[in-house]
Design the sequence.
């Protein structure tokens, strides 16, 4: 159906965006994150983004923040165990530093299937909290540069803002120097 008045088009577009936001916020992974955030601190809220936050660059653009304030949640396989590294958006996780920290030579990125199975999230929406399997978490020291950071909330269009010290508490993560400079930024 076509309308001749511009306000009708705006109203239809507005309603469509609210509906899509509702659909996203009703997804189980997003609800899982939201529930844990509310238990930890009722003031923490999920932010729904119109643009995707699948990458650190996408998230920083959508939020209008420094790319370093974006938390990348990266799952690694070390032998038979899995480790989640929370890395500043402008850095790369150093496999050499991770191998040294873990005392293992066999460390690699987890497959997308394993990411989904272990964390319960798809790549681009991996939250630092609410994983299906208990895993060790390391937090990049570079995230300390920011009083607040943004992390994925279970969907590529959802994030939450959290103070660095609260991120360490909610994840029970261990702060470590696990990164190197990212030449792509």
Sequence:
């Amino acid at each position: 159906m076509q309308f001749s008045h511009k306000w009708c088009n705006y109203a239809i577009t507005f309603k469509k965006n609210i509906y899509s936001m509702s659909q996203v916020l009703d997804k189980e992974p997003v609800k899982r994150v939201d529930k844990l955030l509310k238990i930890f601190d009722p003031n923490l809220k999920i932010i729904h983004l119109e643009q995707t936050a699948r990458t650190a660059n996408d998230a920083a653009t959508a939020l209008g923040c420094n790319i370093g304030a974006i938390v990348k949640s990266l799952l690694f396989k070390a032998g038979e165990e899995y480790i989640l590294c929370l890395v500043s958006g402008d850095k790369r996780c150093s496999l050499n530093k991770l191998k040294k920290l873990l005392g293992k030579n066999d460390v690699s990125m987890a497959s997308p299937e394993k990411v989904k199975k272990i964390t319960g999230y798809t790549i681009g929406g991996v939250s630092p909290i609410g994983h299906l399997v208990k895993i060790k978490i390391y937090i990049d020291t570079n995230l300390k540069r920011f009083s607040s950071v943004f992390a994925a909330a279970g969907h590529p269009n959802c994030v939450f803002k959290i103070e660095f010290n609260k991120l360490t508490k909610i994840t029970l993560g261990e702060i470590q120097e696990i990164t190197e400079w990212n030449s792509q930024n």
